[in-house]
Structures are given as structure tokens and as C-alpha cells.
Design brief:
It is an enzyme of class 1 (oxidoreductase). It comes from Amycolatopsis halotolerans. GO terms for molecular function: peroxidase activity. Keywords: Oxidoreductase, Peroxidase. The protein has 5 helices and 5 strands; from the N terminus they run αβββαβαβαα. It has 165 residues and is of the alpha+beta class. The chain has a 3-stranded antiparallel beta sheet, with no helix packed on it. The protein has a two-stranded antiparallel sheet with strand order 4-5. Strand 1 and strand 2 form a beta hairpin. Helix 2 crosses helix 4. The radius of gyration is 19 Å and the shape is globular. The mean pLDDT is 95.
């Protein structure tokens, strides 16, 4: 199934009933046995590991949570470029995204309560390859920036509710 088929099918389903466009995602996490920082993650039928580098007390078995956050942003950008290029009919041969983020550990460790524990700056660098004029790819960038779900998470406050049982 092509991306345009997915877009058209979703558009039709959402026109029929707006609730057809509402989706929920769920991810389960558990500390791996006999570890202090290794987390086993389950997403549908997929599994992966999260850890910290040795400098942060981990065993470096996998990327850490903030690296996965940057990976989520970059991956979402690549996918959203593909979707919006298809939707707008813009030829796109390749998409490459690099995401860098700066984090001050004073916030995470509680050394300075005035320092936020999250990223202070995130930089997204996108390389597009295709035969269209630069202004066409600038139009595509604007569409992606307006519609990328993970970029929206980075740019806007999202309500989060935490419960402990």
C-alpha cells in the first residue's frame, strides 16, 4: 500500500466518523532483573532495551532515554517528510535527519533546582535529495514542521498524568 493510499484511506475514514482518526499508543517498561539502569521496553510485538552510559551509572547496553527521545524526533521527521512529500506530490529521493540536544545534568541530579532536567536546546538538521526547486522543499519543510507529532511534543506542553499504585 502506498503512502498516498494510506493518506486517502485515512481521510475517507475520518470524514465518515471523526473518531476514526483518533489513535492511542501504549508502551510497557520494566527494570531488567539484577540491574540498576537497564529497562526492558515492549511496544506491540516489539522489544528493545534502554540503559545509561557508564558515566551515568549504566552498563551501556543500549541508548539512554534522552537519546531515544532524539531518535524519536529524527525518525518522526523522516517519516513525516515521506508522508507530506507524497501528499503534496513533491518528488523526494532521500531524507537524512540529524538531531542534537543539550542537557544540563544539574537538573536531573537535583544539584540546582532552577535548572530544568530536560533539553535546553534541540537542533534538527535535515538533508533532502530530489529534483525539485529549493522553494518546493522549503514548502515541504513548513508542512512537516506543522504536522510532525514528535516535533509537536518537543515544542508544546502536553498534559501528563502520573499515578503510582
Amino acid at each position: 500500500m502506498s503512502l498516498t493510499d494510506v493518506i486517502d484511506g485515512t481521510r475517507q475514514a475520518a470524514r465518515t466518523d471523526r473518531h476514526n482518526a483518533a489513535v492511542s499508543f501504549s508502551v510497557d517498561h520494566a527494570l531488567a532483573a539484577n540491574t540498576a539502569t537497564v529497562v526492558d521496553v515492549r511496544v506491540r510485538d516489539h522489544a528493545f532495551t534502554v540503559d545509561e552510559p557508564p558515566a551515568l551509572g549504566g552498563t551501556d547496553q543500549a541508548a539512554n532515554p534522552v537519546e531515544y527521545a532524539l531518535a524519536s524526533l529524527g525518525s518522526c521527521q523522516v517519516i513525516t517528510y515521506q508522508f507530506w512529500a507524497a501528499r503534496l506530490g513533491i518528488p523526494l529521493n532521500a531524507v537524512r535527519v540529524k538531531v542534537d540536544g543539550d542537557l544540563d545534568l544539574h537538573g536531573f541530579f537535583g544539584f540546582d533546582e532552577s535548572t530544568r532536567p530536560g533539553f535546553s536546546d534541540v537542533r534538527v538538521s535535515v538533508e533532502l535529495d530530489g529534483p525539485a526547486a529549493p522553494e518546493v522543499y522549503e514548502q515541504l519543510r513548513r508542512a512537516v514542521d506543522e504536522h510532525c507529532p514528535v516535533l509537536d511534543l518537543f515544542r508544546n506542553q502536553t498534559p501528563v498524568t502520573t499515578t503510582v499504585r
